[in-house]
TrEMBL record:
<feature type="transmembrane region" description="Helical">
    <location>
        <begin position="313"/>
        <end position="336"/>
    </location>
</feature>
<protein>
    <submittedName>
        <fullName>Citrate transporter</fullName>
    </submittedName>
</protein>
<feature type="transmembrane region" description="Helical">
    <location>
        <begin position="248"/>
        <end position="265"/>
    </location>
</feature>
<keyword id="KW-0472">Membrane</keyword>
<keyword id="KW-1133">Transmembrane helix</keyword>
<feature type="transmembrane region" description="Helical">
    <location>
        <begin position="164"/>
        <end position="187"/>
    </location>
</feature>
<feature type="transmembrane region" description="Helical">
    <location>
        <begin position="493"/>
        <end position="513"/>
    </location>
</feature>
<dbReference type="InterPro" id="IPR031566">
    <property type="entry name" value="CitMHS_2"/>
</dbReference>
<feature type="signal peptide">
    <location>
        <begin position="1"/>
        <end position="30"/>
    </location>
</feature>
<feature type="transmembrane region" description="Helical">
    <location>
        <begin position="68"/>
        <end position="90"/>
    </location>
</feature>
<feature type="transmembrane region" description="Helical">
    <location>
        <begin position="133"/>
        <end position="152"/>
    </location>
</feature>
<feature type="transmembrane region" description="Helical">
    <location>
        <begin position="357"/>
        <end position="378"/>
    </location>
</feature>
<feature type="transmembrane region" description="Helical">
    <location>
        <begin position="199"/>
        <end position="218"/>
    </location>
</feature>
<dbReference type="Pfam" id="PF16980">
    <property type="entry name" value="CitMHS_2"/>
</dbReference>
<keyword id="KW-0732">Signal</keyword>
<keyword id="KW-0812">Transmembrane</keyword>
<feature type="transmembrane region" description="Helical">
    <location>
        <begin position="102"/>
        <end position="121"/>
    </location>
</feature>
Length: 514
C-alpha cells in the first residue's frame, strides 16, 4: 500500500509541475498564432506509411518541437525508469499494476499537453496512435500469432554449435522476413533446445543483439528505418553494401557468444538429463510460413502501392496502410483458425507477452511525443546544439544510434537522413535519380558515407536497450514466460550491451567510418 501511495503522490506532483511548466512555452506559442489557420502542425513522420518523398510534410511556419523545452520528456524518462526500477524494487506491485503505471505516465503527459495545446495536442496524440502505435501492435500481434503456430518438434540439444547455428540462421533470416519475424520464428526453438540448462540469459541477450537487430541491416525488409530510406529513394539492394559492417559486427558477437556459451555449457552439463531416445526433428504447422510470407508481402505492398489517402480528425492516412493492417490481421486470424491447438500448446503459447508489450508501449508512444517533436525540429528545437555538432560520418553513426536506442529509430533515421541531404545541398529528387541511374556512389560519395553511418547506427544500436527495436521487449517477455530470469532494463545495458556492443561499435566506426 505504501508503494501505491508513493507512486500516486509522485504522479500528482509531476502532473502539477507539468501543468505549470507547459503554460510557459504555451504563452509565446499562443502569441504567434491567431485562429485555427495558424495552428502549428507537426512534421509528421509517416515511417513506412507515406509514399516516396511525401513521407514528411514541412508545411508549418512553426514546429511544435521548436516550442517544447527539453524537460517535457520527463514522463518519457519516467516510464523508462519505471520499467527499469519497479521490477527490481517492487516486483509484485509491477507484475500486477504495470498497465496502470504505463497509463499513469501517459496521462501525466497527456492532460497538461491537451489542456495547453488543445487541438494541436489532440492531433499529435491521434497521429502517433493511428500512424505508429496501432500498426506497430498489429504487426507484432500478427507475427507473434503466426510464429506461435510453427513448432519444431524433436530432440535438439542446446550445445554451443547448435545454439550458434540457430542464432546464425535467425540473423540471416532477419534481413528477409524482418527482425520481428525472424525473432518470433526462432526464439522458441532456441529456448526449447536449452530448457534443461541453468545459464540461459546470455542466449536470449545475444539473440536480441543479432536476430532482433543487427541481422536486419541488409534489406529494407529487415528494419523500419531502412524501409523508410527505400521509400525516400534509396534503392532496394543498396543496403547490401552494408554487408562488410554487418558481417564484422556480427562475427565479433558470434565469437563472443560461442566462447561464453561454451564456458556455461561445461557448467550446465550436470543439470542436463541423460540422453534418452532421440526423436527426429520435424516442423509442424509449416503452412504458417505462407502466412508469414503474406505479412512480408503486405508490408512491401504498403510501400509501393498508391491507393489514395484520407484524413481522420486531421491525421493524414493512406488507404494502402489500412489495407496492410487488415491483411496482417487476416493472416493472424487464419493462423489461429487453421493451426491445431496441440501445436500452440507445444510452443507453450499464451497471450501475456503481446499484452505486456501493448500495455507498456501504449504509454511509451504517448510520452515519446515531445521527444520526437524536439528531434524533428532539428536546429530549431531544444537539441539544436547537438544537431549542429553532427558533422562527420562517425558523428552520424553515434548520434543516430544513441537516439535510436531510446526513441523510435524510424523518425530518428529520417531526421538525420534529411539533415545529411541539407548539409550537402542535395535535393531528394536528385538522390532518387542518382540511385535509379546507378551513379550515386560517384555523384554523391560523401552522402553515401553519411547514409552508411545513419543506416548502421539506426539498426545496430537498437540492440542497446530493451526498447531500441520492436522485437526486443517481445523476446524478453517470451523468455521470461519460459522461465529465463532476464536482467532488468539497466542490468541488460550494464552487464551486456555496454561491455559487448559498445566496444564492437567503436571498432566498427574506427574501421569503416573514418
Amino acid at each position: 500500500m505504501n508503494t501505491k501511495r508513493m507512486v500516486s503522490l509522485s504522479g500528482i506532483l509531476i502532473l502539477l509541475f507539468l501543468f505549470f511548466s507547459f503554460s510557459i512555452p504555451a504563452k509565446s506559442f499562443a502569441s504567434d498564432t491567431t485562429g485555427t489557420q495558424q495552428v502549428v502542425e507537426h512534421k509528421k513522420v509517416e515511417s513506412s506509411e507515406h509514399n516516396g518523398d511525401q513521407a514528411i510534410k514541412a508545411k508549418e511556419e512553426h514546429n511544435l518541437g521548436s516550442e517544447l523545452p527539453l524537460w517535457t520528456i520527463i514522463p518519457f524518462v519516467g516510464i523508462l525508469l519505471s520499467i527499469a526500477i519497479f521490477p527490481l524494487v517492487a516486483p509484485r506491485f509491477w507484475h500486477h499494476h504495470f498497465p496502470k503505471v504505463s497509463a499513469a505516465w501517459a496521462l501525466i503527459f497527456a492532460i497538461p499537453f491537451l489542456f495547453v495545446y488543445k487541438m494541436i495536442a489532440f492531433e499529435s496524440i491521434l497521429h502517433i496512435y493511428l500512424i505508429d502505435y496501432i500498426p506497430f501492435i498489429i504487426l507484432l500481434w500478427g507475427l507473434f500469432t503466426i510464429a506461435g503456430g510453427i513448432y519444431v518438434r524433436g530432440t535438439m540439444k542446446g550445445s554451443p554449435p547448435v545454439n550458434l547455428l540457430l542464432i546464425l540462421i535467425g540473423t540471416l533470416l532477419a534481413s528477409w522476413i524482418g527482425t520481428t519475424g525472424a525473432a518470433m520464428v526462432m526464439i522458441r526453438p532456441l529456448l526449447r533446445a536449452n530448457k534443461h540448462r541453468k545459464h540461459r540469459v546470455h542466449l536470449v541477450v545475444f539473440f536480441i543483439f543479432l536476430v532482433a537487430n543487427i541481422g536486419g541491416s541488409l534489406t529494407p525488409l529487415g528494419d523500419p528505418p531502412l524501409f523508410l530510406g527505400f521509400l525516400h529513394g534509396v534503392s532496394f539492394f543498396w543496403t547490401l553494401n552494408l554487408f562488410p559492417e554487418m558481417s564484422f559486427v556480427a562475427s565479433i558477437l558470434l565469437v563472443c557468444f560461442f566462447l561464453m556459451d561454451s564456458y556455461y555449457y561445461r557448467q550446465d552439463k550436470q543439470f542436463m538429463p541423460t540422453d534418452g531416445e532421440k526423436e527426429p526433428i520435424k516442423v509442424e504447422g509449416a503452412f504458417n510460413f505462407i502466412f508469414l510470407l503474406g505479412v512480408v508481402l503486405g508490408v512491401i505492398f504498403s510501400g509501393v502501392a498508391h491507393l489514395g489517402h484520407f484524413t481522420v480528425f486531421g491525421v493524414h492516412m493512406t488507404v494502402q496502410n489500412v489495407v496492410r493492417d487488415f491483411w496482417i490481421i487476416l493472416m493472424g486470424l487464419l493462423s489461429l483458425k487453421l493451426t491445431k491447438q496441440e501445436i500452440r500448446q507445444g510452443n507453450e503459447f499464451n497471450w501475456f507477452p503481446i499484452k505486456e508489450v501493448a500495455y507498456l508501449f501504449a504509454g511509451i508512444f504517448m510520452t515519446i511525443i515531445p521527444a520526437l517533436a524536439i528531434l524533428q525540429a532539428g536546429e530549431h528545437g531544444a537539441m539544436a546544439g547537438l544537431i549542429r555538432a553532427v558533422k562527420e560520418p562517425w558523428h552520424y553513426f553515434w548520434i543516430t544510434g544513441t537516439l535510436s536506442s531510446f526513441l523510435d529509430n524510424a523518425p530518428t533515421y529520417l531526421t538525420f537522413f534529411n539533415s545529411a541531404l541539407g548539409k550537402l545541398g542535395i535535393h531528394e529528387t536528385e538522390l532518387r535519380a542518382a540511385f535509379a541511374n546507378g551513379t550515386v556512389t560517384t555523384q554523391f560519395p560523401e552522402f553515401i558515407k553519411y547514409l552508411t553511418a545513419i543506416s548502421t547506427g539506426a539498426v545496430f544500436m537498437g540492440a542497446n536497450t530493451y526498447i531500441g527495436n520492436a522485437p526486443n521487449f517481445m523476446v524478453k517477455s517470451i523468455a521470461e514466460e519460459a522461465g529465463v530470469p532476464m536482467p532488468s532494463f539497466f542490468g541488460y545495458m550494464i552487464k551486456y550491451s555496454i561491455p559487448f556492443l559498445i566496444p564492437t561499435f567503436i571498432l566498427s566506426s574506427l574501421i569503416f567510418l573514418r
